[in-house]
Amino acid sequence: MDHGGCALLVGVKNNRIVKVKGDPDGFLNKGYICPKAIASPDRLNHPMRLTSPLKRVGSRGQGQWDKISWEDAIQEIAAHLNKVRESHGARSVAFCQGMPKGLEHFVLIRLANLFGSPNLVATQDVCHAPREISGVHTCGFYPVADFHHPSKLVILWGSNITDTNEEGEICSLLLEQMKHGTELIVVDPRKTALAERAKHWLQIRPGTDAALALSFLNVIIQEQLYDKDFVAAWTHGFDELAEHVKKFPPEKAAGITGIPSNKIRSAAVDYAAMHPAVIQWGNPIEQTIHTFDITRALVCLMAVCGNLDIPGGNIQPLDPNLLGLGKFVRADKLPSKRKEMIHAHHHTIPRLMTVPPAFFRKAILTEDPYPVKAAYFQCTNPLLTYADSRMTYEALMKLDFLAVADLFMTPTACMADIVLPVATQFEFNDIGHYGIGHGYILARPKIVDPPASCRSDIQILNELGKALTPEEYWYPTAHGLVESVLSPSGLTYAQFVEKGYLKGPDQFRKYLTDGFRTPSGKVELVLTRAHQYGVNALPNHETVSED
Ligand code: SF4
Question: Cβ distance 271 to 225 under 8 Å?
Answer without folding.
Answer: no
